Amino acid sequence: MKLLFYSHFFAPSVGGVETIVMSIASGLAGLRDSHGVPEFEITVVTQTPAGDYDDSAIPFRVIRRPGFSELLRLVRNADVVHAAGPAIAPLLLSLFTGKSFVVEHHGFQSICPNGQLLIEPAGVPCPGHFMARRHTQCLRCNSDQGWASSYKLWQLTFVRRFLCARAAGNITPTQWLGHLLQLPRISAIPHGLEITEPVSRPEPPRGPAIFAFQGRLVTTKGVRLLFEAARILHEKNRSFELLIIGDGPERASLEQFARELQLEAQVCFAGRLSGTRLDAALARASAVVVPSLGGEVFGLVVAENMMRALPIVASDLGAFVEVLGGSGLTFRTGDAAALAALLERIVDDPSFARNLGRQARERALDFCAKSRMIEAHARVYRDVHAAAKT
Question: I need a labelling partner for 61 at 20 to 30 A (CA). Which of 4, 165, 182, 222 fits?
Fold first, then answer.
């Protein structure tokens, strides 16, 4: 079966969509039928330039920045088109050429003009204005970009919903997201992870509790909220440190905020870390805190650190609650005092934290099995292709 993946962003760009597309495409490329013949012929189309990245090192073909005529040719030659997000061009071409297409939703683009389900510029969760037909609210939300731009984003959301409604399948990483999207032929396939060894930590832990944050330093990730909770903990004379892993446009303002809260001694900005450096840093952590305010459809940081057997303290966003499955601690989104209370519990009861970490790993091994993700996707494409031939 000729399977065309369209992912606007792809390696060497780094992000959740890029990671999942690479994982699915590589896994599918490795599937063989009973005669040892590859079941899928995979082509990935992307707008991301290669730079120094070696495309020959991956087990499928990559086409970068194709022109319109080349994209049309690729769609025509495919048996099934998979779009990583409701990208309008490949979906329109698939509809025009009569090709079966599947949309995997990595965000809220089919129910929210800004794709984040957040009210801008405040960055607070949106109650679902677009789906409730409160369109004036949607236009106002994005008006900082200019009214013309806001109107265009609003119009394109209708186009995306129109196309997704005609997809042969809609895939979401959580059932929670599927309920929000309200699209036909929808199925939930959790993101799969490579099985890694749990972090090795001394028992009992030495020194103060270390709470790690891992992610991009932007408003929606809730780092300011974490600092406010840390201030409450500090005022209670609890011993702890915050390890901030990641970078982003708000780093300077967050450093200033930490100074204003007199938390300089407790906060360490580690910058971007990867590979063994990331593993070494997280091996020191008592827990990983994920205080996002919104915009999350799965939570790879949550799942990856569950796999590391680290306790997770996360905001009660629907995606996080589903991924954790009761194996972590959640607090009301945006509530610094509630977060502080959970962090205090981790500080005061290290044995409870270790048990929580073990539960998290067991949940990750089951819920985030990579083999299950690959096979579930393969089953969707087999069914779609079979239906198209009848």
Answer: 165
